[in-house]
């Protein structure tokens, strides 16, 4: 029997990239000792990580092989530290092994269900998201990185210089960003633990509770970043936004905080627009000459219905245009102008 398990394990490991097999073997041995690997199937593949659903002694886990490239944001040592902190707070699935040098982590597999199945409906989901943000921000602060406004300024600069868009097409985005940057009251002393990418694909619902996964972008950040992303995707109405903010704060939000949230939503829209557009870039790309795009609701419906494949380069390109167009639409509203005034006065 032992030789059969050894043969099966070797066959399963053959599906991993050759240069990562030994690191994966070492991680599994460190986490589970001689327990046999009985299944291995790739779940996702991207520029930053390969993720596999594995079974050890017939129990499911996730094996994550992070990119060995390192930069100011992509740092497995920081990501694994943040993941461990979130695990201890009951926000991330249990982490069984993490080796930042090898870029390998093993965690519990959470069988996900649709967020639409939340027993409290959209209102209950909004409250749970607010509570999730509050619990994360109550942990010991994650390590710092460059402040979010500086990161976004650099990302926008890369997009402007990428040739992906015709000259002048993004001038209003740059001007709008500068207006927000001048107005937003950035306070380095008030930064908190932040996931920084809690879109619906990184929120797992197991039928009872919510979990956050994929901590590679986690670091110390403004308290409204995660909250803004939650409201952008999952609490878009004033009522749901209010429920989420009440749950997060433990009290009703005041006028200044709501105004700051309007501005932060613009910042995270621009962040996703830049990141998605740059991620989808190819050497033979033809510069975009207009920003005609689907509405956010149309885009989400196309992904949900399978007409666009989540994570695919073309979906990223279209999603980037959606975010860029929405950013401009919000810039033109009285709500945005009022938010700028309220934040500056507040």
Rounded mean pLDDT is 92
Approximate strand percentage: 5-15%
Query: How much helical structure, as a percent, in the residues?
Result: 40-55%
**SSE ordering:** HHEEEHEEHHHEEEEHHHHHH
Estimated structural class: alpha+beta
Radius of gyration: 21 Å
Shape: globular
**Widest β-sheet, arrangement of strands:** 1-2-3-5-4
Number of strands: 9
Largest sheet: 5 strands, antiparallel
Low-pLDDT segments: none
Tally of helical segments: 12
Could you tell me how far the N terminus lies from the C terminus, measured between alpha carbons in angstroms? 71 Å
Short description:
With 346 residues, the protein is α+β, with helices and mostly antiparallel strands. Helix content is 49%, strand content 14%.
Give your account of this protein's structure.
By secondary structure, the protein is of the alpha+beta class. It has helices at residues 2-13, 21-32, 76-88, 121-137, 148-160, 171-183, 224-234, 238-249, 255-279, 296-304, 313-331, 334-345, and strands at 37-45, 49-56, 59-66, 95-99, 104-108, 192-194, 203-205, 210-212, 219-221. Helix content is 49%, strand content 14%. The strands form three sheets. The protein has a five-stranded antiparallel sheet, sandwiched between helices. Strands 6-9 form a two-stranded antiparallel sheet. 35% of the residues are buried. The mean pLDDT is 92.
Q: What secondary-structure arrangement, pairings included, does this model have?
A:
Elements: H1 2-13, H2 21-32, E1 37-45, E2 49-56, E3 59-66, H3 76-88, E4 95-99, E5 104-108, H4 121-137, H5 148-160, H6 171-183, E6 192-194, E7 203-205, E8 210-212, E9 219-221, H7 224-234, H8 238-249, H9 255-279, H10 296-304, H11 313-331, H12 334-345
Antiparallel strand pairs: 1-2, 2-3, 3-5, 4-5, 6-9, 7-8
Helix pairs in contact: 4-7, 4-8, 5-9, 7-9, 9-11, 9-12
């Amino acid at each position: 029997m032992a030789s059969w398990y050894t043969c099966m394990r070797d066959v399963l490991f053959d599906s991993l990239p050759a240069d990562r097999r030994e690191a994966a073997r070492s991680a599994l041995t460190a986490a589970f000792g001689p327990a046999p690997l009985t299944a291995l199937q790739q779940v996702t593949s991207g520029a930053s990580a390969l993720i596999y659903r594995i079974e050890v002694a017939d129990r499911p886990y996730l094996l994550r092989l992070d990119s060995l490239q390192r930069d100011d944001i992509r740092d497995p040592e920081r990501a694994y530290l943040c993941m461990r902190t979130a695990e201890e707070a009951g926000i991330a699935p249990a982490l069984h092994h993490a080796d930042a040098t090898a870029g390998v982590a093993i965690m519990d597999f959470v069988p996900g269900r649709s967020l639409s199945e939340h027993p409290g409906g959209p209102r209950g989901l909004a409250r749970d998201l607010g509570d999730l943000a509050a619990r994360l921000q109550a942990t010991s602060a994650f390590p710092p990185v460059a402040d979010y406004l500086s990161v976004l300024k650099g990302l926008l600069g890369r997009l402007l210089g990428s040739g992906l868009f015709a000259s002048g097409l993004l001038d209003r985005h740059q001007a709008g960003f500068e207006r927000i940057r001048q107005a937003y009251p950035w306070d380095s002393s008030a930064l908190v633990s932040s996931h920084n990418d809690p879109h619906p694909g990184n929120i797992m619902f197991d039928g009872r509770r919510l979990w956050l996964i994929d901590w590679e972008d986690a670091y110390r950040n403004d308290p409204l970043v995660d909250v803004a992303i939650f409201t952008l995707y999952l609490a878009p109405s004033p009522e749901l936004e209010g429920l989420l903010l009440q749950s997060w704060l433990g009290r009703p939000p005041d006028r200044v905080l709501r105004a700051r949230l309007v501005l932060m939503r613009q910042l995270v829209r621009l962040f996703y627009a830049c990141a998605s557009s740059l991620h989808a870039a190819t050497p033979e790309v033809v510069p975009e000459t207009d920003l005609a795009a689907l509405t956010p609701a149309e885009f989400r419906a196309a992904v949900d219905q399978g007409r666009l494949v989540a994570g695919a380069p073309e979906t990223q390109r279209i999603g980037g245009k959606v975010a860029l167009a929405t950013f401009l639409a919000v810039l033109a509203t009285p709500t945005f102008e009022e938010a700028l005034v309220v934040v500056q006065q507040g």
